[in-house]
Design goal:
Helix content of chain A: 25-40%
Order of helices and strands of chain B: HHHHHHHHHHHHHHHHHHH
Structural class of chain B: mainly alpha
Strand order of the largest sheet of chain A: 2-5-1-6
CATH superfamily of chain A: Dimeric alpha+beta barrel
Keywords (chain B): Sigma factor, Transcription, Transcription regulation
Shape of chain B: elongated
Largest sheet of chain A: 4 strands, antiparallel
Helix content of chain B: over 70%
Number of helices of chain A: 3
Pfam family, one (chain B): Sigma70_r4_2
Largest sheet of chain B: none
Organism (chain B): Rhizocola hellebori
Number of strands of chain B: 0
CATH class of chain A: Alpha Beta
Oligomer: heterodimer
Order of helices and strands of chain A: EHEEEEHHE
CATH architecture of chain A: 2-Layer Sandwich
Family (chain B): Belongs to the sigma-70 factor family. ECF subfamily.
Protein name (chain B): RNA polymerase subunit sigma-24
Structural class of chain A: alpha+beta
Chain lengths: 113, 421
């Protein structure tokens, strides 16, 4: 089954250079393992919410505003699309991502076609 | 056909329903992956039993008979709908599984898979409870709704959503692998114990709620039998049985809660206590003590005291201290405080209660206020006790407990009128 992992965390979290290096290392290890297992379909990191633009169309008017759709304590900072056997494997994959320790990884199944 | 044959068949079908429903449903889900189909076909198999058994006789292995009938129904339905290629695959699986499975031995027992799937942590807790009762215990949606005080429509929606999530979010139908088994098993046992407690702390005479105790015990029995290498499920079964043995004396004729110390111990069920003892001994023999075994040991210790004054409070306080280490929750601490108060005097117990209260974790918990009130009363600090009883009264939702608290409040407000301890 195909799932999207949405990585939510506090984007203003201040990590020391050592901590940051450790997270980068954990992330590299995670990517290596998951690519090796053939789990990752695609994944990427997003620019911070300060650079977010939101768009709505109301009464045929395009309304553009700055900032995210919802102000929350944790922001979505990246995602991975994974292909695994079941929710249990998706949970296992998500639990190994460094964001699971710093924030929250949301696991969403894709709408089946 | 005569009346006694009908009665025999009714009894046999009822017994089979209790013993085999969960197994038939579990097997059908394992074969088809379709929860609704599994429930419908199980239902039809039991209806067929009521029709066929009077004439054909009660089969030697009712479970095997029922599973075969249910499987054939599923096969028929899937054949009829087998326009889609994916469904065709199911038919092949079912037809293969059908070969030679008239013998009950060859039918796999999938109830453990079903239990773990129903109690998957990705499902809301209330859905885990409802699914377990529906698919494993065979309670109707209406019965579950009555037990949890919601409308049948609400409960039906809850069950539909849970099954949808299992299917669409890809919750697997399996016993979890060893890496996650301990935490999943803990979650599964928590659902069964919650079920038991829902039945145990009933208010009033709602039969459907009391039945929850029996269902929880039945499910704990199945779990303990299917996981013989794990001591905690057997510990959980022992714990439930110790509580259940005391149930008849827990509420008096007026529906008032009778505290452990005031219960008529001659009404405790000695046979059930003996059975619980056997289970607990077997669990402890594994040498891996856990929260349920400790709680069972505590409950057992109470059951072994022929008179309240024979209670071995020192050993109960020690068991609570041990439990507090493996399950460090304020509620366990509160229970330890009660045991310590009995072993070493109310002053020592009150000190623990005050430190829990200072921690703030149990603010608004009626039993914290009620325990504090009881200890203050025993110390003769009636004015403070009255305040605490009033607080407990404002927090409790149980009618039986309310009655108990009002009586105690009366004693401390008018100390001369009653001489009960």
């Amino acid at each position: 089954m195909r799932y999207m992992l949405l990585h939510h965390g506090d984007e203003n979290l201040a990590l020391s250079p050592e901590e940051d290096a450790q997270v980068q290392h954990q992330l590299a290890m995670w990517i290596e393992e998951m690519v090796g297992r053939g789990v990752i379909v695609h994944g990427d990191r997003l620019r911070p919410t300060a650079e977010t633009t939101s768009v709505r169309v109301r009464d045929e008017e395009i309304v553009v505003f700055d900032g995210p759709f919802a102000e929350t304590k944790e922001q979505m900072g990246g995602y991975d699309i994974i292909e695994v056997a079941s929710l249990d494997e998706a949970i296992e994959v998500a639990s190994k991502h460094p964001v699971a320790r710093l924030g929250t990884v949301e696991v969403r199944a894709f709408w089946p076609l | 056909m005569n009346g006694s044959v009908d009665a025999d068949v009714d009894a046999a079908v009822s017994a089979a329903f209790r013993d085999e429903w969960g197994r038939v449903v579990a097997t059908l889900i394992g074969m088809t992956g379709d929860w609704d189909l599994a429930e419908d076909c199980a239902q039809e198999a039991f209806a067929q039993a009521l029709k066929s058994w009077p004439a054909e006789g009660i089969p030697r292995r009712p479970g095997g008979w029922l599973t075969t009938v249910a499987r054939n129904r599923a096969l028929d339905r899937l054949r009829r709908n087998a326009v889609e290629a994916t469904k065709l695959r199911d038919v092949v699986v079912l037809a293969t599984a059908g070969a030679g499975s008239e013998q009950a031995e060859t039918i796999p027992d999938d109830r453990l898979q079903l239990m773990f799937t129903c109690c998957h942590p990705a499902l809301p807790l209330e859905a885990r409870v409802a699914l377990t009762l529906r698919t494993l215990a065979g309670l109707s949606t209406a019965e579950i709704a009555r037990a949890f005080l919601v409308t049948e429509a609400t409960m039906a929606k809850r069950l539909v959503r849970a099954k949808q999530k299992i299917r669409d979010a890809g919750i697997p139908y399996r016993v979890p692998p060893v890496e996650v088994l301990p935490s999943r098993l803990t979650g599964l046992m928590a659902v069964l114990y919650l079920l038991f407690n829902e039945g145990y702390t009933f208010s009033g005479a709602e039969q459907v709620r009391q039945n929850l105790c029996a269902e929880a015990i039945r499910l704990a029995r199945v779990l303990a039998a299917l996981m013989p290498a794990e001591p905690e499920p057997t510990g959980l079964l022992a714990l439930m049985l110790f509580h259940d043995a005391r149930k008849p004396s827990r509420v008096d004729a007026e529906g008032e809660l009778v505290t452990l110390e005031e219960q008529d111990r001659s009404r405790w069920d000695a046979a059930v206590i003996a059975e619980a003892n056997d289970h607990l001994r077997r669990a402890l023999a594994h040498g891996r003590v856990g929260p349920y075994q400790l709680q069972a040991a505590i409950a057992g210790s109470h059951c072994h005291a022929a008179r309240v004054e024979d209670t071995d409070w020192a050993s109960i306080a020690r068991l609570y201290a041990h439990l507090s280490k493996v399950m460090p929750t304020p509620v366990v601490e509160l229970n330890r405080a009660v045991a310590v108060a009995m072993a070493d005097g109310p002053e020592a117990g009150l000190a623990i209660v005050e430190s829990i209260a200072a921690g703030g974790a149990l603010a608004g918990y009626h039993l914290l206020a009620a325990t504090r009130a009881d200890l203050l009363r025993r110390l003769g600090r009636f004015a403070e006790a009255a305040v605490a009883y009033r607080e407990a009264l404002s927090l409790t939702t149980s009618e039986a407990e309310g009655k108990y608290l009002r009586r105690r409040l009366g004693e401390v407000v008018h100390p001369g009128r009653s001489r009960s301890s």
